[in-house]
Specification:
The complex is a heterodimer of chains A (264) and B (318). With 264 residues, chain A is an alpha/beta fold. Chain A is 37% helix and 23% strand. In chain A, the strands form two sheets. In chain A, strands 6-7-8-3-9-10 form a six-stranded mixed beta sheet, with helices on both faces. In chain A, a hairpin with a 7-residue loop joins β1 (2-11) and β2. With 318 residues, chain B is an all-alpha fold. Chain B has one domain (2-297). Helix content of chain B is 77%, strand content 2%. A two-stranded antiparallel sheet of chain B has the order 1-2. Chain B starts with a helix and ends with a helix. Classes of the chains: A alpha/beta (264), B mainly alpha (318). Chain A binds chain B through residues 53, 75-77, 79-80, 82, 84, 86, 90-97, 101, 104-106, 108-111, 113-119, 161-162, and chain B through 160, 162-168, 170-171, 174-175, 177-186.
Chain lengths: 264, 318
């Protein structure tokens, strides 16, 4: 479903701030794969997701989604194939617009936007039903401005928007990191349910090793712009946090002491 | 002092107010354009100073050529649309900051407007010789025509911003990253919003030129500030009257109400025999005050000065 071939990206090349963020990353996802991504700060996790989403062009390499080469397409053109949820709950929704308007914008992802009415009566019913599955009481607040919702509610809404029209690829960039533990768990549950229900091909970054092990059928670990560990199936199910820490220690060496704090 | 007050004639003021309403309606149309960029697209577009004059120049020259005034104003709106697109393209395609793009367009339009007027600074169009849509000579008709046009504009804008395309423009103004993630071409939406806004402004410029009976290259100077004044006065009055029931249609209506109120104040200031040249300063002060109010309100509930005051009073209390 997703195929990245030898992707390179360097930020601020030729300056003192030069940062080789991706150094030849190759990654293939089969349809229905739910892959968790872990790694320390600056490992290139978010950069990889941004490269796939098309936030900026890659320096070298190619990316294709669902068999279609998207290397030359900017993010808004790739959006018809991709659903995204960001780390900051404020990023994924339009605060001054109503819940139903936000959903309607997402419903039309990848379609041409015309002078037809922005939200139709028929879709309102659909949105109500979809919002009810989140269990947050949002189904009765269709015309509430999103800016009045809590961070957790906004993140759940963003998740719903990202999957309202089934994307070929779902990108979750630490989407529970900014939430309190209880809300984070709720959003993660909703994620698990939606992804499983529709068999969505998913890439999920997380800082929580336990989550990375529990969720998904495959796990990759990144370090200094490379994928250093890739485990799937039964081997992944049997992983323990200890194993991951060890793996990370081997790869990272001396830097590990710093990163260990963060990974826990 | 007594002589000054004796010289003020209240009946005279009442007689002048309708003209204030007529002008307020015309500038209210302009303010609708400013509202689109300033509030919906979140861009302070300074090209309107130029496009208002462009609208005036195009309308008057075409009427002098024998055009129907409505066709002339439609052409003016087209010219405004193009100018707005130029601003939008300077911003999105060439990466020039939005505010600077507007300034560049506005600056260039001064020359363009002079060329349209045949290298003259102004050009008269007499209501005696030509058929005009509105004229200061017939204020009641101007109010009627202006009012109708404003109603049509508000209805059209209300529906447009409820459509898929209009929603995308609003989303772009609210959250660009979210818009891109939903597949919206934010650059195209910015150009569209700026074009639409400047089309309205140029149309209003054409109307204002007919009302005053001439087009002037400087007629749009400060239009952005007057537009902002109308938008902000309208918002304050609107939220005072409607409160939480304020909706999109209400916002558009109150923008025009803001324009009318602005011209009422203007009329009263003139009636008080204050030099009209001081009006620009008053307008700037009004806009600054109203823009500052929300900020200062926030400061009242949360500021360092308040925190220090509370800490002090608690210490003294003990």
């Amino acid at each position: 479903m997703l195929s990245c071939k030898e992707i390179y990206k360097t930020f601020n090349p030729g300056t003192i701030n030069e940062k080789k963020a991706l150094c030849g990353v190759s990654l293939d996802l089969a349809e229905g794969d739910f892959v968790t991504v872990i790694g320390g700060n600056g490992a290139g996790k978010s950069t990889l997701l941004n490269a796939i989403a098309g936030v900026w062009p890659v320096d070298a390499g190619s990316i294709s989604i669902g068999g279609e080469d998207v290397t030359g397409l900017p993010d808004f053109k790739r959006a018809r194939l991709i659903g995204r949820v960001f780390q900051d709950p404020m990023t994924g929704t339009a605060a001054t617009m109503q819940i139903e308007e936000n959903l309607a914008l997402a419903k039309r992802r990848g379609k041409s936007r015309t002078l037809r009415w922005g939200v139709t009566r028929a879709e309102r019913e659909e949105y109500k039903a979809q919002l009810a599955t989140l269990n947050l009481g949002l189904e009765d607040r269709l015309t509430t401005k999103v800016g009045l919702l809590s961070g957790g509610q906004r993140q759940a809404l963003t998740l719903l928007m990202a999957t309202l029209e089934k994307p070929k690829l779902l990108l979750l960039d630490e989407h529970t990191a900014a939430l309190d533990p209880k809300t984070a768990e709720k959003v993660l549950e909703a994620t698990e349910r939606i992804v499983t229900e529709h068999g969505l091909t998913t890439l999920m970054i997380t800082h929580n090793m336990k989550d990375a092990i529990v969720h998904g059928n495959r796990l990759i670990m990144m370090h200094e712009g490379r994928i250093i560990y890739d485990v799937a199936g039964e081997a992944k199910q049997n992983l323990r946090v200890k194993d991951l820490l060890l793996k990370f220690e081997q790869a990272a060496g001396a830097e590990f002491a710093n990163d260990r704090m963060m990974l826990n | 002092m007594a002589a000054y007050f004796a010289s003020l004639n209240f009946t005279n003021l009442l007689g002048r107010l309708p003209a204030g309403v007529a002008q307020g309606l015309i500038w209210g149309m302009m303010a609708l354009g400013v509202y689109i960029t300033f509030r919906l697209l979140d861009v302070a577009d300074l090209s309107v100073d130029g496009t208002f004059s462009t609208g005036a120049c195009v309308t008057v020259m075409l009427i002098l050529k024998g055009w129907n005034p409505w066709a002339a104003m439609a052409a003016a709106a087209g010219a405004g649309l193009l100018a707005g697109m130029v601003t939008g393209l300077l911003h999105t395609k060439l990466g020039i900051p939005a505010i600077l793009s507007g300034i560049l367009t506005q600056y260039a339009l001064y020359s363009v407007n002079l060329m349209i007027l045949g290298m003259k600074a102004n050009q008269a169009v007499s209501v005696d010789k030509y058929h005009l849509a509105v004229s200061g000579r017939n204020v009641n008709k101007a109010i009627l025509v202006g009012g109708l046009v404003v109603i049509v504009m508000i209805i059209a804008l209300y529906f447009f911003f409820g459509t898929e395309l209009g929603s995308s423009v609003r989303a772009t103004g609210c959250n660009q990253q979210m818009s891109k993630a939903q597949g919206i071409n934010i650059n195209a939406m910015k150009v569209l919003g700026l074009a639409l806004s400047n089309a309205l402004v140029a149309f209003a410029g054409g109307m204002a030129a007919q009302y005053s009976g001439f087009a002037d290259v400087n007629s749009g100077r400060g239009a952005i500030v007057i537009g902002l004044a109308a938008v902000i006065i309208g918002e304050v009055i609107g939220s005072a009257i409607l409160g939480k029931r304020m909706n999109t249609a209400g916002r558009f209506v109150f923008v025009v109400v803001g324009g009318i109120l602005y011209y009422m104040v203007y009329t009263i200031v003139l009636w008080l025999k204050i030099d009209s040249n001081l009006m620009k300063m008053f307008t700037a002060i009004i806009v600054a005050v109203f823009l500052a109010v929300p900020y200062l309100q926030g400061q009242r509930t949360s500021s360092f000065a308040r925190a220090a005051r509370l800490a002090r009073s608690k210490k003294e209390g003990k």
